[in-house]
Design a protein that fits this description.
Elements: E1 9-12, H1 16-27, E2 32-35, H2 43-48, E3 51-52, H3 56-61, E4 65-68, H4 73-80, E5 91-95, H5 100-112, E6 116-122, E7 135-140, H6 142-147, H7 149-152, E8 158-161, H8 168-177, H9 180-196, H10 205-228, H11 238-255, H12 263-277, H13 285-289
Parallel strand pairs: 1-2, 1-4, 2-3, 4-5, 5-6, 7-8
Antiparallel strand pairs: 6-7
Helix pairs in contact: 4-5, 11-12
Length: 299
C-alpha cells in the first residue's frame, strides 16, 4: 500500500464486529483511531497500534473517514450526539442494523451536521472481515464510496455500491437477512430430530450444506418468476408444499420435536392455495406476503 492510500480511519463501536473492522484497518497500515463507550474494549486494538480517543468528538475529529459499528441507527446517533460539530467535512459510514427509515433519518442528521453519509452492511461474521470474498454493500453519497473505495475494500473484497438513496443498504440488509432465522431454525429442528435417534448432529452437516446449495441454485429462477409475475411454470408447486406439511406433524410426534414454529409458514402456504395458486410455483407465496394496501414511505 502506497502512502497516498493510507487514509486515517476512525472506528466507533468495538463489539465483535467493530473490533474486527479496527483490526483490518490496523493490519492494512491505516492510522486507526478507536472509541467505545466502555474504554477497556479498545485495549486489544491499542496493543496492535491503534490510538484510543478518550472522547467521541476527538475520535471523529481524528480522521476524514469515520466508521460506526453500533447496534442500531438510534444507537449511532446517540453515540455521536456530542460529536455533531466534529462531523463537518467528514465522511460518516454506518455499519449497523436497522430499518430503511432509520437510515434515512440518520442520513438527514449527518448531512445536517455537514457530513457526507454512506450506510452499509457487512454480510458475514466478524472472522470473515478482510477476506477477498466477504461482501459489504453500501448506499448513499457515491463520492464517499469512490473516494474511500480502496480503504473500504480492506474490510472485504466484494464491495458494492447499491445507489445514491441512503436507505438501500438497510433495505437489502433486512430483505436478505429475513432468510437467516427460518433457515437456522430449520437446521436446529433437524438437529433435534437426529439427536432423538441417538445420532450426532455433525452427521447431517454435509447433507444440509448440499440442500442449501440446491436452494441457492433456485433463487435466480424464483426471482425471475416474481419479477415477471408469472408462476405457471411450477417445478415445485404450492400444493406440493401443502402436502408436505403433514410430514412435519408426523416428525413432531415421532421425534418429540416441537414444530409449532412452522404453523405460520403452513398457514401461508394454505392461503396461497386458497387464493388460486395451488398449481403455481411456490414463489407465488410472494403475492400472499404482499399486503393489500401498501404504503410507500420512500422518498
Amino acid at each position: 500500500m502506497t502512502a497516498k492510500n493510507v487514509t486515517p480511519v476512525t472506528v466507533i463501536g468495538l463489539g465483535s464486529m467493530g473490533t474486527a473492522l479496527g483490526e483490518a484497518f490496523v493490519r492494512a497500515g491505516h492510522p486507526t483511531t478507536v472509541w467505545n463507550r466502555t474504554a477497556a474494549k479498545a485495549a486489544p486494538l491499542v496493543a496492535m497500534g491503534a490510538r484510543h480517543a478518550e472522547a467521541v468528538e476527538d475520535a471523529v475529529a481524528a480522521s476524514p473517514l469515520v466508521i460506526t459499528c453500533l447496534t442500531t441507527f438510534d444507537d449511532t446517533r446517540l453515540a455521536l450526539r456530542r460529536a455533531g460539530a466534529s462531523l463537518r467535512g467528514r465522511a460518516l459510514v454506518t455499519l449497523n442494523s436497522g430499518p430503511p427509515a432509520g437510515a434515512r433519518e440518520t442520513a438527514a442528521w449527518a448531512v445536517g451536521h455537514g457530513a457526507r453519509f454512506l450506510a452499509g452492511a457487512v454480510k458475514d461474521v466478524p472472522s470473515a472481515v478482510g477476506a477477498p470474498d466477504t461482501l459489504l454493500y453500501y448506499s448513499g453519497d457515491r463520492t464517499v464510496f469512490e473516494e474511500f473505495g480502496p480503504t473500504l475494500s480492506v474490510l472485504g473484497g466484494d464491495t458494492v455500491h447499491l445507489g445514491e438513496e441512503a436507505d438501500l443498504a438497510a433495505l437489502y440488509e433486512m430483505a436478505v437477512g429475513a432468510m437467516l432465522l427460518p433457515a437456522l431454525v430449520g437446521f436446529f429442528q433437524g438437529a433435534a430430530a437426529v439427536q432423538a435417534r441417538g445420532l450426532e448432529v455433525a452427521t447431517m452437516v454435509r447433507f444440509a450444506g448440499k440442500w442449501l446449495d440446491m436452494i441457492k441454485s433456485l433463487l435466480p429462477i424464483y426471482a425471475k418468476e416474481i419479477d415477471a409475475g408469472d408462476y405457471t411454470d411450477a417445478a415445485s408447486s404450492v400444493n406440493l408444499f401443502l402436502a408436505g406439511a403433514a410430514h412435519d406433524e408426523d416428525l413432531s410426534e415421532e421425534a418429540n420435536v416441537d414444530t409449532a414454529w412452522l404453523a405460520p409458514l403452513h398457514d401461508l402456504v394454505r392461503r396461497a392455495a386458497e387464493a388460486g395458486h395451488g398449481e403455481h410455483s411456490i414463489s407465488a407465496l410472494t403475492e400472499v406476503l404482499r399486503k393489500a394496501e401498501r404504503r410507500h414511505t420512500y422518498g
